[in-house]
């Protein structure tokens, strides 16, 4: 994975560690200060956004666009 630079990205990384403990993610790429693109081992992609209230919004790439 990578080192998260903002508080929001660190919160996302903690959330991802809790949601995907078995390492089901191929990669995690920061997009903005509060969003990352995740790629599953299957090749599917999704976007995770940390909202201002601290909740996570997980959307497939098709939904996010």
In terms of topology, how is this protein built?
Layout (H helix, E strand, L loop, with lengths): L6 H13 L5 E8 L2 E6 L4 E6 L5 E5 H4 L1
Antiparallel strand pairs: 1-2, 2-3, 3-4
Mind explaining what this structure looks like?
The chain is α+β, with helices and mostly antiparallel strands. 26% of the residues lie in helices and 38% in strands. The protein contains two helices and four strands. The protein has helices at residues 7-19, 61-64, and strands at 25-32, 35-40, 45-50, 56-60. A four-stranded antiparallel beta sheet has the order 1-2-3-4. A hairpin with a 4-residue loop joins strand 2 (35-40) and strand 3 (45-50). It is globular. The mean pLDDT is 89.
Q: Any key phrases for this structure?
A:
65 residues; alpha+beta; 2 helices; 4 strands; 26% helix
Mean pLDDT: 89
Evaluate the radius of gyration.
11 Å
Structural class by SSE content: alpha+beta
Number of helices: 2
**Uncertain residue ranges:** none
Main β-sheet description: 4 strands, antiparallel
Number of strands: 4
**Spatial strand arrangement across the major sheet:** 1-2-3-4
Percent helix:
25-40%
Shape: globular
Helix and strand string, N-terminal first? Answer: HEEEEH
Span between termini: 24 Å
* Fraction of residues in β-strands: 35-45%
Provide a quick synopsis of the model.
26% of the residues lie in helices and 38% in strands.
